[in-house]
Amino acid sequence: MDVQRYISSGIIESYVVGLVSEQEAREVESAIAEYPEIREAVEACRQDMERYVELYAVSPPKDIRSRILDAIENESSPEGEELLPEELREPGEAAADRPARPAFKLTPLRVWQIVALLAVAGMLISILFNNRYAGQLEAQQVEYASLQANQAALKEEYQAAMAKLDDVTGELNVLKDPDIKWTRLYGTGKHAGQLATVGWNPESKEVYLRALSLPEPGPGQQYQLWALYRGKPVDAGVFEMGKQQHALQKMKPVTAVQVFIITLEKKGGSATPALDQLFVAGRP
């Protein structure tokens, strides 16, 4: 059984106010015995009804006692005799001579009492239903907000994954391009063991770089790629380290090159290379 769905169906409130059939009452009692949650819901509903009755209880009219006593005193009178069932009336000519009267008569007072009872019962059920459904609505709103937050997080993760996929796809296309010539740049002097890779397309003039094992530059410093041609250095741009160190970074286009070198410059690059800060070099 779906206990929460059963509790929210309204059968609990109907059972407490006595508006269920015998079969439905037996089913509710069986569920109470089997499921603690349903037993707690029934008890909570009863307590809510008791609190409501205490809150909206109406004191009886002050003359109700005298009216009841008058009715008892008139029980043996003709008027009182007519109020008794026929099998309890005293036999006699008086009873025989009296005109027959309807077996049941709805007086204005009784009609008012029935209407009032139905109105109170309807109000009680309405209040209980409203309180229960208000709590359920609040819980659903909290759950909906949580689902929206999860959806937003999943959307961000999806967009990041798609961006990463685009980067990987772009790198694969570059690596598979037969027109790109790849050159390894090896460490020089005290920087022996350092390594970077440069790809150059002589037709499109595009240049790509992967920093590989270059060490992190100091504060305010940045690596710069140069293309040497006929003894003149051509700026091919600065590049990022850190997370981008092993990524394929697109550099400035180069028309012609004999040797690629990388130097350590001030952040943002320099107009001419600092050859005393030469780290790696390689010939295409």
TrEMBL record:
Anti-sigma K factor RskA C-terminal domain: residues covered: 119-274
Pfam families recorded: RskA_C
Coiled-coil regions listed: 130-171
Keywords of the record: Cell membrane, Coiled coil, Membrane, Transmembrane, Transmembrane helix
One cellular component term from this protein's GO annotations in UniProt: plasma membrane
Transmembrane segments: 111-129
Protein name as annotated: Regulator of SigK
UniProt lineage: Bacteria, Pseudomonadati, Bacteroidota, Chitinophagia, Chitinophagales
